[in-house]
Specification:
By secondary structure, the chain is an alpha+beta fold. The protein has helices at 23-32, 82-91, 107-112, 151-154, 187-192, 194-198, 293-301, 304-307, 345-359, 376-382, 386-396, and strands at 16-18, 36-39, 54-57, 66-68, 73-77, 94-95, 129-135, 141-145, 163-170, 172-173, 176-186, 203-208, 215-224, 236-237, 260-262, 282-289, 311-319, 334-341, 365-366. The chain binds flavin-adenine dinucleotide. Flavin-adenine dinucleotide binds at residues 6, 37-44, 48-49, 58, 78, 100-102, 105-106, 108-110, 112-113, 115-116, 158-159, 163-164, 279, 283, 367, 369.
Length: 413
């Protein structure tokens, strides 16, 4: 029985865990539970999936991928992990536009929290969804596609609408990526030329370790095909394969140094074959409108003395706007300021609250799957469709059987 999340900072309070394998079994579990929460691969750092009654693990909701070449989509069981889908797509000559840093997360769990990779021209992983099959707590099986009125509210669902049993995702013909990592870019240069740096390749990530708050330690670039990244002069490519954490072996990272490889072996930072069962770290992330990214990074730099003693690494990523109500990129292009922390939760939470307060003036949205102080007033201010989402959740789950304390901010809306 799974009792803890990946990071081990959440021990689920469920009295039972059920692992249904198909829609009928999902309906049976839902019918027998007073309170229930779907659980994907358990990679979230918050109590979002917690319940004191029934955890519905999606680990067996992994129906094999069905590719529709004409529609350029793939339909797959919601519990499937990206790391399982990706090789099946590649084998048929297809690709996803993007991946998160880790391919081991479940697809339905990732899209429920607005998970994203990086790329100025690329949307969140949620924005690749073209339709969903959802089993609601009353047992109805609902298929929601882009053409339906509920769709924009139903993708980033926080698991508050029902159990996503199938997901249909956009695909495109397979493509090659060359990954190169550059070292020691002065932060002032990165901020002065922010658009050029973040747009230097198909996907760009900035990594800062905060020993020196004036330096971006690494710039990871993932360029499509034969394209070369266009970075400001004077920044050198790392002489060998590197990890984003100081002193850690790069064995788990995807190939760098410009060695071409298919999308699935380059878009994630970590190799499919490397499966970390748990991690001695915590994560938080704040996402700001692209237009405020430079000011927001400056505001974070002003907190460097608070951040440095607890941080492992910060990652800055970009993403294209979408229309999904609870997406971090709802309504505007966005930039994510991610923090991987040492596992010292109380101290980390205090600094996370400080960062969130400092970034409030910039319309900052927290990542739903990472540590956040979850201030209901702030959430309502930055997600204009939050009340509409609460109404949608009441319609799909009229008795509130999917509610838990994490989601209580929805009750006041
Ligand atoms: C090492 C690591 C790296 C990460 N990298 C990134 C990254 O690059 N980018 C990023 O944005 N985030 C990243 N994250 C965060 C992660 O992507 C999210 O927490 C994501 O939600 C995890 O997916 P999961 O399947 O583990 O979901 P869980 O944590 O299991 O669940 C998350 C939410 O989804 C709901 N849910 C799960 N499955 C279903 C379903 N079938 N139907 C309905 N609701 C469901 C749950 O109820 C819960 O509310 C990372 C996390 C870790 C630990």
């Amino acid at each position: 029985m799974t009792q803890a999340n990946w990071a081990g900072n959440v021990r689920f309070g469920a009295r039972r865990i059920e692992t249904p394998a198909d829609v009928d079994e999902v309906r049976t579990v839902l019918a027998s539970a007073e309170h229930v929460r779907p659980l994907g691969s358990g990679h979230s750092f918050t109590l979002i999936a917690d319940t004191d009654d029934t955890l519905l693990s999606t680990a067996r909701l992994t129906s094999p991928p069905r590719i529709d070449a004409a529609a350029r989509t793939v339909t797959v069981g919601g519990g499937t992990r990206y790391g399982e889908l990706a090789p099946a797509l590649e084998a048929e000559g297809w690709a996803l536009a993007n991946l998160a840093s880790l391919p081991h997360i479940s697809i339905a769990g990732a899209i429920a929290t607005g998970t994203h990779g990086s790329g100025d021209g690329v949307g969140t992983l949620s924005s690749a969804v073209s339709s969903l099959e959802i089993v609601t707590p009353p047992g109805e099986v609902v298929r929601v596609g882009r053409e339906d009125a509920d769709f924009d509210g139903a993708v980033v669902s926080l698991g508050a609408l029902g159990v996503v049993t199938e997901v249909t995702l956009d695909i495109e013909p397979t493509f090659a990526i060359r990954q190169r990592v550059y070292e020691s870019l002065p932060l002032d240069v990165a901020l002065a030329e922010f658009d050029a740096v973040m747009g230097a390749a198909y996907s760009v990530s900035l990594f800062l370790r905060w020993n020196d708050p004036d330096v971006v330690d690494q710039v990871w670039t993932k360029a499509r095909g034969d394209a070369s990244p266009r970075l400001p002069g004077g920044i050198a490519e790392a002489a060998e394969q590197v990890h984003m954490l100081a002193g850690v072996s790069p064995a788990a990272t995807t190939a760098q140094r410009g060695e071409p490889g298919p999308w699935l072996d380059r878009l994630a930072h970590f190799r499919l074959s490397h499966t970390p069962s748990n991690g001695a770290e915590l994560q938080s992330e704040i996402l700001v409108p692209r237009a405020h990214a430079v000011e927001a990074i400056r505001a974070v730099r002003a907190l460097a003395e608070d951040i440095a003693p607890l941080i492992l690494v910060t990652e800055v990523r970009s993403m294209r706007a979408d229309d999904l109500w609870l997406s971090p990129a709802y309504g505007h292009d966005a930039v994510g300021l991610h923090f991987t922390w040492q596992p010292r939760q109380r101290e980390v939470e205090a600094v996370v609250a400080k960062i969130e307060r400092a970034l409030e003036p910039y319309g900052a949205r927290p990542h739903w799957g990472k540590l956040t102080r979850l201030d209901p007033e702030v959430l309502a201010a930055v997600w204009p469709r939050l009340a509409d989402f609460a109404a949608l959740a009441r319609r799909y789950d009229p008795d509130g059987r999917l509610r838990n304390p994490f989601l209580s901010f929805l009750d006041a809306l």
